[in-house]
Fold this sequence. Notes:
With 223 residues, this protein is mainly α.
Amino acid sequence: MKKHLLPALPYDYAALEPHIDARTMALHHDKHHASYVAKLNTALEKLPELQDHPAAWLLQNLDKLPVAVRTEVRNNAGGHVNHSLYWRCMSPGGGKAPGGLLADAIKRDFGGFAQFQMRFEEAGAKVFGSGWVWLARAQQDGGKLEVYTTSGHDNPLMQGHFPLLVNDVWEHAYYLKYANRRADFLKGWWAVANWEEAARRFEQSDQSAEQAWEDEGRVVLTA
Ligand code: MN
């Protein structure tokens, strides 16, 4: 069967130190993300007709899946898609302010970069239990930028919003360094936020949602 693959981290485990420690990165990628990929493959083992689809497609088409595997696929395809994107939303050379058209859109929709950061941090701190905080673009609302949160491994694409930047607020993302201080993690995370990736995704989001996600599906590899 075709299998979903764990993508390599685009940098070393220690590359985001001191903001995110190497041990957290190693556990997060090699254990947590790897387990979502393995469980997704297990869930699809007996469903060859679903094995050619990118994980993002599975998330967007849960209603086409057999009910018996729907929750398992939602959790683990979501875990795979979200983490694959998350690694790329951080960079050792990150932390700069966004530029170009994305900077203009942030100013238009939030009033400024500092206001956006405050909204993102507040929303991330308020997520109850395990989830994610996103900067995403609404496809159906003139492309307006918005801060969204999701529970579990849900992704804004499930509501038709195109994600530009994401932070993981599951405890496993920060507990070793920040203990219970999620708000400090959210504040420290700006130092590694990859605005070049967000700007690239902003341009990608000008296509139809369907095309953008087809492109996205090619990034999360299957073999
Ligand atoms: Mn995670």
